[in-house]
Design goal:
The chain is of the alpha/beta class. The protein has one domain: Rossmann fold (3-Layer(aba) Sandwich). Helices cover 36% and strands 25% of the residues. Strands 2-1-3-4-5-6-7-8 form an eight-stranded mixed beta sheet, sandwiched between helices. It starts with a strand and ends in a 6-residue tail after the last helix. This is Alpha/beta hydrolase.
C-alpha cells in the first residue's frame, strides 16, 4: 500500500514531524497547493502505479485536495484504500472507501459530522491547537469514537497506526 500525505498550508517541517511521529518511512508527500486537485492527480500519476492501493492522509486544506482527487483517481482505475482526514473542518466526506475524521477539539468533530462523519472519528480532549494535531499526533490525546455510544481513549498517532494496520500497512 502507498501512503500519500496531503498537507495543508503550513511549514513543510510539520509534515515531516507528523510522518516521524507515526513511523512513516517513505510516504509520498503531495507538492504544491492543497487545493490543486489536478496537480495532485498528476503527482500521483508519476509517483505510484494505479494498481497499488492508496491511502490518503490529509490535513486541513489538504483534505480538500484529497477528497477531490480520490474519486478521480478511482475513475482512472486507481484503488483508494482509505482516507484519514485531519481537521478537515467544513469539508464534506463522501466516497466508496473508508474515511476517518480526526479533529483538534470536540466542537470541530461534532460540527464536521454534519458534513459526513466518515466511518469513525477522533477528537482531542483536552483540545490542542490546530497545527499541533498534525505536528505532534503522538501527544494529541483524545477519544476514538468508532460508532455512536462507543469510545475509548487513545492518541491520534496510535489510532492512525491502528487504522493503517487495518488496511494492510506494516509500519515495523
Amino acid at each position: 500500500m502507498t501512503i500519500c500525505l496531503c498537507p495543508g498550508i503550513h511549514a513543510p517541517q510539520l509534515t515531516r514531524e507528523f510522518a516521524a511521529a507515526i513511523g512513516l518511512s517513505a510516504p509520498k508527500v503531495a507538492p504544491g497547493s492543497p487545493f490543486a486537485i489536478a496537480d495532485l492527480l498528476s503527482f500521483l500519476d508519476g509517483a505510484i502505479a494505479s494498481t497499488e492501493p492508496l491511502t490518503f492522509i490529509a490535513f486541513s486544506a489538504g483534505v480538500v485536495g484529497a477528497i477531490g482527487a480520490a474519486p478521480l483517481w478511482q475513475q482512472r482505475g486507481g484503488i483508494v484504500r482509505s482516507l484519514l482526514a485531519f481537521d478537515g473542518w467544513g469539508v464534506p466526506l463522501a466516497g466508496t472507501y473508508p474515511q476517518h475524521r480526526f479533529s483538534h477539539d470536540r466542537f470541530t468533530a461534532w460540527s464536521s459530522t454534519l458534513l459526513g462523519a466518515g466511518d469513525d472519528l477522533f477528537f482531542c480532549d483536552p483540545p490542542v491547537p490546530h497545527l499541533d494535531l498534525w505536528r505532534s499526533p503522538h501527544t494529541a490525546r483524545g477519544w476514538h469514537v468508532p460508532r455512536p455510544g462507543w469510545h475509548h481513549r487513545t492518541t491520534a498517532a496510535d489510532l492512525t497506526r491502528s487504522l493503517l494496520a487495518r488496511y494492510g500497512e506494516n509500519l515495523n
